[in-house]
Design goal:
The complex is a heterodimer of chains A (95) and B (160). Chain A is an alpha/beta fold and 95 residues long. Chain A has four helices and four strands, in the order βαβαββαα. Chain A has one domain (5-94): Response regulator (Rossmann fold). Chain B has a single domain, classed as Mannitol-specific EII, Chain A. Classes of the chains: A alpha/beta (95), B alpha/beta (160). Chains A and B meet through helix 1 and helix 3 of A and helix 4 of B.
């Protein structure tokens, strides 16, 4: 039994862009029947929160020395390459 | 219809003359401050944040957008201000801050609650993803046209 996956969604202030990204990921995963817990945070909080996440999705550069996969993308804001990023997220959650 | 609930005619500046991103933020922020929607610390906070956490979004078409914003403590009431620029202004790329992009349209966001205003934010993202609408916005000469275009795009299923 695989537990619920945890995704950390980061942006500069944890107010605007991560809200859009978190909602978009939630909807995309729901559509595919994948359950995940999504938490928003500031980019500066990634080092302290990364350990509790299976995947980090961010719209702004974040620390990467925590051993967790990081997807850095604007796709959920600009729409460019969105489907590919969703596939990438699902791939990372599976592994 | 949630964008026009946050965007008033007085906060739509069309063909704005500006040299820098700070200049754009200053002029747009003033409209929000004059309407009592943001505190006097807001503009400086947005400008400072833009330096370390930039908000330029490179898009597929000719038109690029920036969505400057800052922490909730500088905001009284959630709102959006919008400008089309007479000539493109340089913003840094959100995801690659070293990269400069020429921005034509700016949405200045004032948010008073974290993780909230999801409809408003999604609608801004929807506009960003709608090339036809962005092109239409660039040709607008009256704020009424902008509000009408937003209202129309929301009823038009094609626009995301």
């Amino acid at each position: 039994m695989i537990g619920k996956k945890r995704i950390l969604v980061a942006c500069g202030t944890a107010i605007a862009t991560s809200t859009v990204v978190a909602k978009a990921i939630e909807e995309a995963l729901e559509k595919r029947g994948i359950q995940a817990t999504i938490r928003q945070c500031k980019a500066s909080e990634v080092p302290s929160l990364a350990q509790d996440a299976d995947l980090i999705v961010t719209t702004t550069p974040v620390a990467t020395d925590h051993g967790k996969p990081v997807i850095q993308t604007l796709a959920f804001l600009t729409g460019i390459g969105k489907e590919a990023v969703i596939e990438q997220i699902i791939e990372k959650l599976k592994s | 219809m949630s964008l026009d609930q946050y965007l008033s005619k007085s906060s739509i500046l069309l063909g704005l003359e500006a040299e820098t991103s700070s200049d754009v933020i200053c002029q747009l922020g003033e409209t929000l401050f004059n309407a009592g929607l943001v505190k006097d610390s807001y503009v400086e906070a947005v400008i400072n944040r833009e330096k370390t956490l930039p908000t330029g979004l490179p898009l597929d078409g000719e038109i690029n957008v920036a969505i400057p914003h800052t922490d909730i403590e500088h905001v009284n009431k959630s709102a959006v201000a919008m400008a089309t620029l007479a000539k493109p202004v340089t913003f840094q790329n959100m995801v690659v801050p070293d990269e400069s992009i020429n921005v034509h349209i700016v949405f200045l966001l004032a948010l008073d609650e974290p993780h909230a205003q999801i409809e408003m934010l999604q609608e801004v993202a929807g506009v960003v993803q709608n090339t036809d609408l962005l092109e239409l916005l660039m040709t607008a000469t009256d704020p009424k046209e902008v509000l009408a275009a937003f209202a129309k795009s929301e009823t038009d299923p094609k626009s995301n």
